[in-house]
Amino acid sequence: MTADALDGIDDVDWASLGHAYGSAEDVPGVLRDAVGADEELARDAIEHLYGSVYHQGTLYSATPWAVPFVARLAADPGTPRRAHLVNLLGAIAKSEDARPEVLADVRTALARETSRLLPLLDDPDDDVRHLATHLLGHLPRSTAAEVVPALRARQERETSPLVLAGLLAAAVRLSPADSAEWPAGELAPNRPAAASAGALWAIADAGLPWPDAATDAVIRLWLDGEPLKGWIWSHDPFSHIVARLDRASFTRICRALFERGGADAARTAIRTAYQRCVRSRSAREEFAPLLAAGIDHPDVQVRVAAATAVRDVTAAAALAADSLAALVADPRAADDGSPEARLVELAFETLIGLGDPRWHAPLATALTAGRVTSDGLHLLIDIGVPCDPALLAAVRDRLAALPAQWSSERGGYDGLQSRMQWHNEVNALTRLPHHWGPDAADAVPELVRFVPHDEWWAVRAIGAIGPAASAAVPALAQVQDDPTAKWERRLDYAQALSAVTGDVSRLSGLVAEAVAAGETVAAARVALNRGLPLDGIIPALRDIAGTPTSDEHAIMDRIEAAKLLLDADAAGPQDAAVLSAAADALDAGKFAAEVADLTGRLGPAAADLVPGLRAALLPDDRLASHPAALPLRMLTGNHRTFHPVALALRRLTGDTEPLVEAVRLKFPYWGVGPWLVESLRELGADAAPLLPMLRELAHGDDAISLFSGVEGQQVRRDEEQRGQLLAVLAELGH
Predict the structure, then answer these.
(1) In DSSP terms, which residues pair with 398 in a beta bridge?
(2) What is the Cα–Cα distance from 34 to 49, expressed in whole angstroms?
(3) Is 177 exposed, middle or buried (0-12, 13-18, 19+ CB in 10 A)?
(4) What is d(CA 457, CA 431) in angstroms, rounded to the nearest whole number?
(5) Which residues contact 335 (CB under 8 A, 6 or more apart)?
(6) How far apart are CA 134 and CA 74, in angstroms?
(7) Cα 686 from chain centroid?
(8) Whole-prediction pTM value?
């Protein structure tokens, strides 16, 4: 039967079709391997299918042509590994990421297979039936008249709770109005928990009216943990449900789970309340007592979840300060790497962020024992904690205890993890003396140990300490004068040595040597930063900027050389070398963002580059034909091109629309930053179309960006960005 399912596959002109890796001519062979006898080959083939005709959610011209063959194989009971194929079809059916014509062809192909796929609902394999609900529920809604009756018929004899939940979800998705009474009827206490939970999810997902019994049902179903573990429709059904609820229902559910449920329920309540705080500013005060109460929960994992949230939500941190101070009182009591140790680390970070002085004495003990995370150490710098004898002594003790170089003998995953922890700790510990400068002079002996192997802040810390670090001169000079060391490293060490000795002659000589060795761009950057004469470097920079090349690294060097010429006032906007560097880089097709920065500084002299910059705004056919995909591309990389190019066009042509659209698209993902200030200043009065959005984000309840900031630090990030946005609007008179 498997061979029959592939009848006609070789008649398709696969070479004329494409997938994520190029030509789709390999699809017939891959499909045969996926259902063949060789297990290893089949595993690789299935993985290739998921990465080619469906690549991270994106569909291609080959996808609709593959659908009929995959559907025939999936429907054939004799096909091995059918569940993978049903799952693949479901993923394809759910995706909306493709050119409009590809999406239309995929949906047409899937709709044609409806009758063939419906018998999957009666398959003896629970997994196949479960996956089939997801596939059938994501077929085009034009199939609802055929699919929904089959879903209802299967419900009468279905025994698997997860499949029952999937049947509900599929019916409501395909026909929300006609299926609304079905999930409401599944909320009775005598129904299977998974079916009731699936009904709640379907109601929330479709935006159906919230039944009177629904809030109590959520509490009942989740008090004992997750009733939908492993459900194909949602990896986090609870969050999906409660995110759509009004404030009163949401609050009631979270409090009930925390106060009446077990550890899993309490952790769910803390996690979900924190997620609401990330999205909603008003929720932070409201849920602060609940988050703070979690610090004293008997289950350590609940306490860790609460401490993670409390660290980010200042209102909760203030309420939990006494409990947090008790946790750090003896930082050595917890076993290294245990949840209890993580709790102590989070408590330290929270108290430091609060400015609560009870962190100070225990931190010195914890530092010496290696019980302070790199995040905690960086936080000391971020809030400007000054150097004091106790802290400096603890930093010195810990630096002395760490190896100056990692042993390559420690292999495997555990070795990699240990190396990363060591690297992060040394990085943070050496950054502190750099921040403290001359006040950290006593740490020079410990810093010198790291000089020969420095990948962190040790050399820069010595430079920041200055003349008091004279003991480091021999070690710095050894690397500075090492002809086998990389030039960038030698120049870094020479700068530190100059800061310690006050003598710039050796640094000047090394800059000249670097230019002679072909490291002109790096040498010029150092000379410019240090105020050294550039007379002997300018001709070499001009040669680099004006010399055509196809090498990508050399193209970047040309752009950098052109910028350095402008920075050094050694070239004007009409400079031929600078203009040719910009034009050739733009023609290369990969450097639009870098060229945009350069051309924006050149002004009208770069007018000939405007057509190329306009073309760079939409760098591929998919964007040009499917503008709805643009926000996703802004998130995944196109923002590097779109915004700087739009800014350059504004400066060159006065065009407003590209820059306004770039800000509108970039802002929700990247929030406030220097880029926004620069854009608003450039737009001036033409920023008016953006002001309603910016004012709402500055003064409203929604967080500025759900995509910016490190997880677990998003509330603080939002509050920082809100302050910056208010300042920008005030500066510009808005």
Answers:
(1) none
(2) 9
(3) exposed
(4) 5
(5) 341
(6) 14
(7) 32
(8) 0.84
CA dist 679 and 691 (Å) reads 13
What is the mean pLDDT for each group of 10 consecutive residues in the chain (734 residues)?
78 94 94 93 94 92 96 94 96 94 96 97 97 98 97 94 96 92 91 94 94 95 94 96 92 97 96 96 97 98 98 97 95 83 94 94 89 88 93 96 80 79 92 97 97 87 97 96 94 96 95 95 95 92 93 92 92 84 86 86 87 75 39 45 90 93 87 90 94 94 78 91 92 80
Q: What's the gap between Cα 241 and its chain centre?
A: 24
609 φ, ψ to 5°?
-90, -5
DSSP states along 555-587: HHHHHHHHHHHHHTT---TT-HHHHHHHHHHHH
Q: How many CA atoms lie within 13 A of 701 on its CB side?
A: 9
**What element of type H or E holds 22?**
strand 22-23
Alpha carbon distances (Å) from 7 to 4, 11, 53:
5, 9, 19
Domain ranges of the chain: 246-372, 617-731
DSSP assignment string, 26-56: THHHHHHHHTSS-HHHHHHHHHHHHHHTEET
Q: Are 123 and 129 in contact, with CB atoms under 8 Å apart?
A: yes
Q: Read off the tokens for 46.
A: 């299935």
Q: What is the CA radius of gyration of the chain?
A: 31
Beta bridge partners of 97: 58
Residue with the two structure tokens 């929960």 = 297
User: Which residues contact residue 39 at a Cβ distance below 8 angstroms, ignoring those fewer than 6 apart?
Assistant: none
